[in-house]
Sequence to fold (115 residues):
Amino acid sequence: MVLRETLLALRQTGTVAAYHEQFKKLLATPVPSPVTGADAIFYFRRGLQEHIRLALLAADDTDLDAVVQRAKDYEMAYSFNSMSSAAAAAALGSTTSANRKNLRRRRRRNLLASR
Fold:
């Protein structure tokens, strides 16, 4: 019972990958009644940050590895979407003159719209 209580208390405070590592260590703890399958998925999802947990509600994954991968993918997309346009372009390695020109055009349009 202690393992299940520990899993209930576990929360994601960093990245999904770091949370997954903590989660795996707990699951590897030898106990008389190990947590597997649907229970492991339940505990893993429950500890995720709220915006990631809510994004995974519609998914009907029955494999913990699939749930973990979906959470990592969402985290990546979420962090990418929250970047500024310039940071996103830099992250993609998009520094072509056409991209810089489009970025300047967007900034100018936004500046004019705010006046």
Observations:
- Residues 1 and 42 are 16 Å apart (CA to CA).
- Residues 85-114 form one domain.
- DSSP finds seven helices and no strands in the chain.
- The longest helix spans residues 64-81.
